[in-house]
Amino acid sequence: MLKYDPLACLPSSDELPDSDDTPVDNQLQHLMPNLLEAILAMAWADRMDWFFGVDMGVYYDPNLPPIVPDGFLSLGVERFFDENLRLSYAIWEEEQVPIFVLEVVSQSYRGEYTTKKDEYAKLGVLYYVVYNPTRRRKPRFEVYKLVNGEYQLQESNPVWLPEVNLAIGMETGTYQSITREWLYWYNEQGKRLLTPEEQAKQAQQRADILAERLRALGVDPDSIA
Fold first, then answer.
1. How far is CA 25 from the centre of its chain?
2. Prior bond of 62 cis (ω within 30°)
């Protein structure tokens, strides 16, 4: 007897457009989520159950256009390492709604405080984060948590996200040689997770200290294989 599989009738993520082709008008719309993704890639290098998408289409209905957050995090999904990476994110394939969504407010509003916020709430996104670099009558940094179907503002910096086991917050730092205010991940003790550049610099400083100690002992560090 032939069994009917409704999922087999739906398009795969490979067959769907990967974004809405809307050009960004603010460089931070790429840089902010890229930094958050890069930090997670270091902090969760051994985890195989997460995905962070940047400017990628999130499909919840095959007959409707996708929602395209600036950045989003999903937990409990497969992490791909081969060349066949995700082209888009189809919820009926992944079986997980993103737990975290980031929107960076552009020069002209794109519904970050209205339509997009409502869409994410209906979709069931637990945490909705808005970063507003222009300070136009709005706070710079807002984190909302979905409670009983409505978003409630979480007022602190950083904001602890227990379901993610990390906090999200903002502070001044340097990324890609740009010193400004950035969004970062923090651990439960409130310590900021280092960026890849910071970890590399820290490793180099330790190597330099070790080399100096070896030289003080009369050992040429360059001669050590």
1. 19
2. no
